[in-house]
Amino acid sequence: MPEKFFRKTDWVSCWTTFVIALIAYALTLQPTVGLEDSGELIVASDYLGVPHPPGYPSWTLLTWFFQRIFNFVTYHGQPNPAWAVNFFSAFAGAAACGTIALLISRSGRDLFFGLTKNRETLTEKSINIYTAVAGVVGGLLLAFGQGMWSQSVIAEVYTLNV
User: Fold this and answer.
1) Nearest CA-CA partner of 148 in 93, 75, 79, 76
2) Quick one: CA torsion of 54, 60, 61, 62, rounded to 10 degrees?
3) Global pTM?
């Protein structure tokens, strides 16, 4: 039976990064409409409209779906579709960071075997630990970078693009 491409430690790295990033983003999430294109994008998402060109059809459909899931969220007693759109940015940003962690963890294993001449000194367990930690660190470096964090807590399209 062939070996699986992604190992258990790769997935642990991915999900650990995703959960940590999502919690951090959710705790710092903008609660309602903010600056930049926030208002325009939230209204377009709420009515399945078209924001400014290029229109972002995939983003609009996904955020509309998130609004239907989180329609119970209110802000000062009023319905708050902005929170769901902002949370979608956090979810997409955390998913991107988790994917980066998965890829770093998996490619780290290949790098270990390509760069290490004394393979006998490294055990399977130590390689798994090194690659998993590298994946989590790489994913969290992306997650807590100024650019990613700033776009993951507001209504914007960039985290889905990442």
Assistant:
1) 93
2) 120
3) 0.87
